[in-house]
Amino acid sequence: MQFTYIILAGGKSTRMKQDKGLMLINEKPLIAHVIQNIEKQSRNILISTNNEAYQQFEYPIVKDRETDIGPMGGIYSCLEQVKTKGVVLLTCDMPMVKATFTQKLIVQLDEVEAVVPKDELHVYPTCAAYKTEALKLAVEDCVKNRVYKLKMLLDTLHVHYYSVSEEESKYLVNLNTPEDVLSLLNQ
Hints:
The protein has 187 residues and is an alpha/beta fold. Helix content is 28%, strand content 19%.
């Protein structure tokens, strides 16, 4: 099954106080780390953002058709351009995610509509694999009904929750604050 990677980079970054995806980590924009890690798996990548500065990464950027509805708006807009049977959602603030990890999610997608990682505390719908058609229908329904929480979206899909190992949990670290960045750099 062919997959498109959608990187969500349209957040307001209120806690970071700057555009997270463009923030430099080890002299490279945060989103560049994500792209570098997944390009080994696929070069079929869309970046969901309204910020033209993301054109520097040479992948199509997709602006939100529906604004101010959070990640749902970015997913909704990107799905219109997806031509593959599968989608992997990622966020620009997860620099540790690897193609090998997303591949583990993809291979489990046969009998379900979504494979979503989870640990003891969280479910990660924005680091997950989906069948395109099922996701598209579910997102369209959510937007039509003004339901914008991704966890509510998951309730409408046949989901396999993949329990991440302690080793794999590092892939799911996302950076929301300057303190998160410092913590990552000091590891």
